[in-house]
Amino acid sequence: SAARDRYIKKTKTVCTYCGVGCSFDVWTDERHILKVEPGLGHANGISTCVKGKFGWDYVNSGDRLTTPLIREGDRFREASWDEALDLVARRLSEIRAKDGPDALAFIASSKATNEEAFLVQKFARQVIGTNNVDNCSRYCQSPATAGLIRTVGIGGDSGTIRDIEQASMVITIGSNAAESHPVLATRVKRAQKLGRTKLVVFDIREHELARRSDLFLRPRPGTDFVWLSAVSRFIVEQGLHDRAFVEARVNGLDEYLESISGYTLAYAEQETGIPAATLEAFARDLAAQEGVCILWAMGVTQQCGGSDTSAAISNLLLLTGNYGRTGTGAYPLRGHNNVQGASDMGAMPDQVSGYQRVGDPLTVQRHEREWGVTLRPERGLDNTQMIDAAIEGRLKALWLTGEEMSLTDANANHLERGYEALEFFVVQDLYFTNTARYADVVLPASPSLEKEGTFTSTERRIQRLYQVMEPLRGTRPDWQIYSAVARRLGFDWSYAHPAEIMDEIARLTPFYAGVNYARLEGYETLCWPVAEDGTDTPLLYRDRFHFPDGKAVLYPATYKPRQNAPDAEFDLHLNSGRMLEHFHEGNMTFRVHGIAEKAPDTFVELSPELAAERAVQSGQWVRLISPHGAVRLRALVTGRVSGNEVYVPMNARRAEDAVNRLTGSGGDSITNTPAYKDTSVRMEVLNDV
Ligand code: SF4
């Protein structure tokens, strides 16, 4: 009826789950979500995945926090916003006065908007005066960014998601894209089905894309650097590289070749277990392709040498001339909806927005003019270092936004010791999370459907989201919370709307120079870098790489073998990752009824051979034990894993059984990203439950 239609509203939003960046029209009646339709989005077109289509009920979960909480001894009591914000401002200022600005640290959320991530780092740098600020890309994608910055100069996907369909060969390495980035994987599957694209998968697990691939190769865990370097060396040795491209556009060939001189195909076979003849055939095929895209994710980055392997991927693309054209290039697949944006916005300890170094004189000058304070030139603490500093007593206060660190960080038991050592801990989230149990103040935030802002997807695409519904009573959008505390500490930012924050971002960030809300109206999007006149850059490196002379660099990286290979005591290799139905730790998706029913809990995948050897059947309880902790899980016997390989999804109903009780703190030497995938465990079969 006409009366009813008056209340039904259609609003454009952007998916709040993975980094593909699908966009939707959401039909609502007040807070009731009637339907979610794929919009005219660049990434998805008419397709979507189960999370984007059905995964929104978490906004109306009865578990939403609706009032700030303040700790009193072992309990929490409800407080007004004014009381909670006054307390946060007072404690932050007392700790700064007593222990200096570097005793405080801030973590931005990769689920929140660009504008909010920008304000977290602005708060740290302008209001407090510290570079101790980071975001969760530290746990996933920082090594990919580091590898690309060393070789081509920009830490982002080379082209758009649609461009991948134009490649004659798509290679995925350590990426379960069909479950982690479903809509992007659909495009790859379609291109392959139409006969346009050959799909090659390197992975230790036989996931869906592996089963569909034209060639599936299973290197030993953590050895991708070796086959990449051996294939690169073979291609040059046989004269199959793109000589003209390398001569015209790339520096450092000699030094690079020297660095990979020992990487013969025979050595690669010995180290990775892939036959030399198979690698040779693959190398010849790759070198003959029109266009190659390489997609990679956590199987590469969450290793001791994640940055070096990411550089090795880029080196192979450079040698074969696979940059600067549609259907070529490097595609690190970003996990969270806005993990690209949180890094773009400078929620990092050494860079402000747009990857500008904190010590760079021009950057300092620009920020001085805009913010009226001088940036500190030295690097601050990253996420991993923050926890160590808390345990050592150097870090006293932490303000964490929208992240369930207790489940997603490596070495959860160590992490919780860090929380306990803090003098003051603020957790800002939708729910009373496992991490919130350790907080002194818990602030109830609003999810994406309840606010305006922008997200930047894996393809560097900036998109607007509109407010679908009012913030749930008692909650506030993150940008308003930071603004309210900044005001209490003497900095009146006075933003009336997130559009004004974006205008400031544009003034401070050359990559975002031409970004404003008017240019992002509705389904309009921009891929950064965006020039002041609004011209954007869907495809990078057409004419030049992002270095002063415009040339890329073949980077002489080094192999960092894994440190925790299985031994007599811990005899199984543990792998972890996502599953289609759940997002990360599952805090949102476990609160979506249909999803929780379909995938009620986590499990451990065992190979048929291991299950037979240990006499375990699907459904039986087992305990996995590592040097760092133990968890109890149900077994699932499946051919996806082989031999002594076990796999546990990262979502968990019970924090005490989260896979990251098992992982350790050691990691990539360049970025401090934990080597989640370098973990060995032993298994006990539990017959008594
Ligand atoms: Fe959302 Fe990613 Fe699914 Fe698209 S593919 S609907 S962005 S979770």
UniProtKB/TrEMBL annotation:
Q: Where is the 4Fe-4S Mo/W bis-MGD-type domain?
A: 8-63
The protein here is known as: Formate dehydrogenase subunit alpha
- Which keywords appear in this protein's UniProt record, sorted alphabetically? 2Fe-2S, 4Fe-4S, Iron, Iron-sulfur, Metal-binding, Oxidoreductase
Tell me which domain of life the UniProt entry assigns to the organism this sequence originates from: Bacteria
Gene for this chain: fdhF
